[in-house]
Amino acid sequence: MRGSIWARALLEGPCDAGGFPPSVVVCDGTIGGRPYRTVAVVPNRGARFPRARNGEFGLDEGLAVARAVRGAPPGAALISVVDVPGQAFGRREEAAGISLALAASVAAYIDERRRGRSLFTLVVGKAISGAFLAHGMQSGWIGALNDREVEVHVMPAASVARVTRSSAAEVARVATVVPATARDIATFASFGAVDDIFEVVDANAPAPDEIEAIRAAIDRAREAGLGIRAPLERLERPEAARRALARDVRARIDKAW
Amino acid sequence: MQRIVVERAGGAPVTRRAHVGAVASGNLEVLCEPPAGAGARITVETSVDGYEPIWRATLERFLERNPIAAAIEINDFGATPAMVSLRLEQALELAR
Amino acid sequence: MTPALLRRSYVEATPRERIEALVDAGSFREILDPFARCSSPYLAEQNIVAQRDDGVVIGRARLDGRDVAAIAVDGRFLGGSIGEAGGAKIARALERARDGAFLLLDTGGIRLQEANLGLLAIAEICDAVVALRERAPVVAVIAGSVGCYGGMSIVAALCSQIVMTRVGRFGLNGSEVIEQEAGIGELDARDRPAIWRATGGIRRVEQGHADILSGDDLDELAGALRAAFAAEPNRERLSLERLRRCFAQEAPA
Questions:
Q1: Which among A38, A89, A136, C211 is most buried, taking Cβ atoms within 10 Å?
Q2: Cβ-nearest to C34 among B27, B31, B77
Q3: What average pLDDT is seen over chain B?
Q4: Considering only CB atoms, which chain C residues are within 8 Å of B23?
């Protein structure tokens, strides 16, 4: 339940905005006296869709996150607290159109950011595939805990070997030569995708000084206007040296267009 | 992964660029351009190892029948010799 | 007359043939064609031969005179999956588009072999679609045999209009993946009629998740594409109230 722990711990004062399903924790509070809303997706054993009970981003989560984002109090910045094992895999989800649930969430984040609302993300656990696309990747500032369970990828580790019909050893080898396939946060950060990594002793029990450090970083980032930056702006930052290929493609398109 | 290069001196240069095919299972992509120097040079990149003699035979036969000067790049994913020849013919048709 | 014009089927046509058939005659100018060699440097290490256009075709074209970006994902190469180079092509084409864009989406989503670079690219593409659709049509066409899955299905859902055929499927996770993750009791990937009934073009248009249903014929699709460009952007597709009602219908009793 890291998501809910951090969603609450990040803000000053008691919080808990009501009216959301148990799988989406929404808190309103402040940091440095300025208003924020945190949003986390968490496990809900009693969820009505059986394939979305372990913290997966499913149909109801997409709608609830979209509602939480669009309904954030005026002037509040958003903090997406991310620990999601992925999107929900199920026949009901596909029949219902889960792509649209994720898109509703993405659209909410993008629309709010384009209207001037600052978006921040703190990755406290897993950030996988569609779930991360829908909840967290549209932020102008992305921070993460330096913890073994923090990982970014497009598929659970066990599935990768199976789908590529290779061994776990081969998958591990590929991760060392193709950093894009590595799961750890430091490697993801080497693509310029992460703004700050925070040391914590126990990611499930944040210490006051650890919380303070993150609050201060978010407060500084908000002050500097970093929360409204668009994803494509990351490409031009010096930290994104490793994305030279993408930059080169874009420059060549510009010449030819 | 295997890389194979076949060259042949002489031949009439192709005048245009041509591209056919795709890197899908049993398929290949062919990029054909006017030559850098004289003669024909075909470079093959394939994910299916162990067929060099067949590649050479297929490509040399193609160049025998079509004495062109060209720079040809083949990206292969397990195409049969017949498919390889077909794609080369298609590319040549567009490149002449 | 090119062979494409004799073959009237979208499914049988290549990505370039599809674009040529859909836009104003002779108006398509490809940008970063295979000879630009913007291919993936990450695949050789994984024993995969790279396709020179990285499985994405982009360019400029006219659609009833409009100056639009044409984008087509090649479903033949690695299941139409999106890597760093192809993803950058899509995003930049959307940013450069003047009077709108259309995307022919025959894609399984993020390319596993490039994982997080594909993930970053798709986040950028989502942003580019939303930015463009504020001022011009962005139309997704889902009509190929691969369907539109994964992160790219999120992209499609953000578009102003979606054109589908009965062949096209629009979903997030493919049936094989669901069967793997959840077991055959959840979904039998071999039951193709059931899969199309649930995620195919007929069902999606009926649900209101997609907008226009066309036949596979390229002329008919060209008309459908123009109709999509002329139509009002669909602001209801992602309406939370509409989705709540749709999802309630699928909830277990």
A1: A38
A2: B31
A3: 97
A4: 49-51, 76-78
Which whole number is the average pLDDT over C96-102?
A: 98
Asked whether the beta carbons of A68 and A17 are under 8 A apart, the reply is: yes
Question: Is residue C1 predicted with pLDDT exceeding 70?
Answer: no
Q: Which residues of C touch B73 (CB under 8 A)?
A: 52
**Contact list, C33 vs chain B (CB under 8 Å):** 19
pTM: 0.97
Candidate from C35, C44, C49 with C-beta closest to B33: C35
* Identity of the residue in A49, A95, A133 whose CB atom sits nearest the CB atom of C122: A133
What is the gyration radius of the CA atoms in chain A, in angstroms? 18
State in Å, rounded, how far the first CA of chain B is from the last one.
Answer: 31
Q: What is the CATH number of domain A2-229?
A: 3.90.226.10
With residue B58 as reference, give the H or E element that holds it: helix B52-65
Q: Name the residue ranges covered by the structural domains of chain C.
A: 3-250
Nearest CA distance, C246 vs chain B (angstrom): 37
Is CATH 3.90.226.10 the right assignment for the domain spanning C3-250? yes
C172-210 confidence digits (pLDDT tens): 999 999 998 899 999 999 999 999 999 999 999 999 999
**Does residue B27 belong to the interface with chain C, where contact is any CB pair within 8 Å?**
yes
Q: Which residues make Cβ contacts (< 8 Å) with residue A16, sequence separation at least 6?
A: A8, A25, A26, A27
What confidence score (pLDDT) does residue A239 get? Answer: 87
Is it the case that residue B35 has pLDDT exceeding 80?
yes
Which residues does chain A have within 8 Å of residue C171's beta carbon, measured at their own beta carbons?
94, 97-99
What does the domain layout of chain B look like in residue ranges? 2-95
Given phi > 0 = left and psi -120 to 50 = alpha, else beta, which region is C98?
alpha
Q: C-chain residues within 8 Å CB-CB of B45?
A: 49-50
In this prediction, residue C7 carries a pLDDT of 57
CB of B89 within 8 Å of any CB in chain C? no
- How many C-beta atoms surround the C-beta of residue C175 within 10 A? 23
Q: Are A10 and A49 a contacting pair, CB within 8 Å?
A: no
Tokens representing residue A44 in the block: 């809900």
Could A130 and C154 be called an inter-chain contact, meaning their C-beta atoms sit closer than 8 Å? yes
B17 vs C35: CB contact, 8 Å cut-off? yes
Query: Is the complex ipTM higher than 0.95?
Result: yes
Asked if C45 and A177 come within 8 Å (Cβ–Cβ), the reply is yes
* pLDDT tens by residue, A12-42: 977 778 899 999 999 999 999 999 999 999 9
> C72: which residues sit within 8 A by CB, 6+ positions away?
C15, C16, C18, C19, C56, C57, C58, C103, C104, C106
